[in-house]
From TrEMBL:
GO terms for biological process: transmembrane transport. Its main location: membrane. The chain crosses the membrane at residues 37-58, 65-86, 92-122, 134-154, 185-203, 210-228, 259-280, 300-318, 338-367. Residues 431-539 form the STAS domain. GO terms for cellular component: membrane. This is Sodium-independent anion transporter. It holds the Pfam family Sulfate_transp. CDD domains: STAS_SulP_like_sulfate_transporter. It comes from Neogemmobacter tilapiae.
């Protein structure tokens, strides 16, 4: 296997080799370590509040978000196939994780995470990574927007400081319950959430290189503590964070049957999210990731995180982009980001108890708003009615039914749209050439991919062609590929021509096209093959 991740490089590397091996083989110097240390610290500052906020929104304690970022993030960088990927808990998983916890509890979530790791690693070993990237762009936009809306709805309770007994998971019942509890709005919580959102947006605009997320959370925590505001904090809801990582423990595998469907959903979303993140890093850095190795790395990271009590790990687009912009030289920055988070847990964990939940809700509200790529969605809806249908159906299924159903249905719709468009490129061009041997010879030129979609649209036209001339020359010069359905239409044409006492000649068939035609029984003397139309005319 050739390492295409290094421009101009043709160094042979082992199959599934992590990118960490690649950077050390290229030569890793002290200057690289300095750059990676700075990038790792920058990413850790971004990941610290995000990891806790995502964990809380997912229905688990904030310490599990940090554990996931530390253990999972470290393993993703060690074993992954992207130089710059940062692993950890992701906002895209909030919906699935919270639903999983509500359905089978925290032990079941850990088992599902553990099993999803094996599914991801197996997918990588089977070299399925390249196929995951075929997810249509409208589907990606729609499910991301759907997740963003659900995340935003899940934060309304803490944004407003509402007193709510049971908060339903489904969107419409959730909104109804929030409306019923509207009289319990806490003005202090609402003010802190507004302050956090305003600080994040102002710093993002005026000082984009500053750690705006962490600074906004720190200011909100200081204000809440200094003024003694009556708001709920991490400490009041979850207690103090642990000062070290727990010992690894094998999950309760008696929950295997209940956890397996969730594990499949985690693996599907994790594969999509991590490979999309790796593609973003490729675009920013000019490097190429190894998708199969990345899936193996993600699988190992999920297994490792589950052993320590963490939950789903995936590549995170925002943190990965921050890593690239901060000057990362390779996976070492991701490993150091995890170690910096571990240092916080060991040294400064008690400070997290003062963070208001309203501030974390404000942070996630900004993240959710940024996740939904509104301009791109609107541009696609205006440009293509078919893409608009894919976006709307996927979005509605994600929001009101299930994330996995939305992805599968969107993928199927996107595939049908693609098939229809590709089928439309196939054409049949006929001519009665003046220099033909006689007027009974017809030249038929096929254009475009000749697959089942094209065969369905044009098969009847070929049948009508067979009713007239005694000799037909079928030219495949402009046919890049054919499938069994397309070959079957040609075989049916040959049968009709033969029954009418005519002859069929095929020209300019590529080797792979000719193999599929032969599989349908199209061989000499049933049909005759020529290198080009001129040769067929002479004969």
């Amino acid at each position: 296997m050739v390492d295409t991740s290094h421009p101009g490089g043709a160094e042979r590397i082992p199959l599934f080799a992590p990118k960490l091996i690649t950077i050390f083989r290229e030569g890793y110097r002290l200057t690289d370590l300095r750059a990676d240390a700075l990038a790792g610290l920058t990413v850790a500052i971004v990941a610290l509040p995000l990891s806790m906020a995502i964990a809380i929104a997912s229905g688990v304690g904030p310490e599990r978000g940090l554990i996931t970022a530390i253990v999972g993030g470290f393993l993703v960088s060690v074993f992954g196939g992207s130089r710059f990927q940062i692993g950890g808990p992701a906002g895209a998983f909030i919906v699935l994780v919270s639903a999983c916890v509500a359905s089978i509890g925290l032990p079941g979530l850990i088992v599902a995470t553990f099993l999803s790791g094996f599914i991801l690693a197996t997918a990588g070993l089977l070299r399925l990574g390249g196929y995951v990237r075929f997810l249509p762009y409208p589907v990606t936009l729609a499910f991301t927007a759907g997740i963003a809306l659900i995340i935003l709805a899940s934060q309304v309770k803490d944004l407003l400081g509402l007193t709510l007994g049971h908060e339903p998971a489904a969107l419409l019942p959730k909104l109804q319950a929030l409306w019923v509890a509207r009289e319990t709005i806490n003005p202090a919580a609402l003010a802190l959430a507004g302050l956090t959102i305003a600080l994040i947006l102002i710093l993002r605009r005026l000082r984009p290189r500053w750690p705006g997320l962490l600074m906004a959370i720190a200011v909100a925590a200081f204000v809440a503590w200094g003024l003694g505001l009556p708001v709920e904090t991490i400490g009041s809801r979850f207690g103090a964070l642990p000062r070290m990582l727990p010992a690894p423990v094998l999950p309760d595998l008696t929950l295997f049957g209940e956890a397996l469907p969730w594990a499949a959903s985690f693996a599907l979303l994790g594969a999509i999210e991590s490979l999309l993140s790796a593609v973003v890093a490729d675009g920013m850095s000019g490097r190429l990731h190894r998708p199969d190795t990345e899936l193996i790395g993600q699988g190992i990271a999920n297994i490792g995180a589950a052993l320590f009590g963490g939950f789903c790990v995936t590549g995170t687009i925002a943190r990965t982009a921050t890593n690239v912009r901060a000057g990362s030289r390779g996976p070492v920055s991701g490993m150091l980001h995890a170690l910096f988070l571990l240092a916080f847990l060991l040294i400064a964990a008690p400070l997290a108890a003062y963070i208001p939940l309203a501030a974390l809700a404000g942070l996630l509200a900004v993240i959710a708003w940024s996740m939904a790529e509104k301009a791109e969605i609107w541009a696609l809806i205006r440009a293509s009615r078919a893409d608009a249908v894919v976006i709307v159906v996927t979005f509605l299924l994600v929001v009101f039914r299930d994330l996995t159903e939305g992805i599968v249905a969107g993928f199927a719709l996107g595939g049908l749209v693609f098939i229809r468009r590709m089928a439309g490129t196939a054409q049949i061009l006929t001519e009665h050439p003046e220099d033909a041997v006689d007027e009974q010879t017809l030249v038929v030129r096929l254009q475009g991919p000749w697959f089942f979609g094209a065969a369905a649209l044009t098969g009847a036209a070929l049948d009508r062609i067979a009713d007239h001339p005694r000799r037909i020359v079928l030219d495949f010069a402009a046919v890049p590929l054919i499938d069994s359905s397309g070959a079957r239409t040609v075989e049916r044409l040959a049968q009709r021509v033969h029954r009418m006492g005519g002859e069929l000649a095929l020209t300019a068939t590529r080797p792979e096209v000719r193999r599929l035609l032969a599989a349908q029984g199209l061989a000499e003397p049933k049909v005759r093959f020529f290198p080009d139309i001129a040769s067929a005319r002479k004969r």
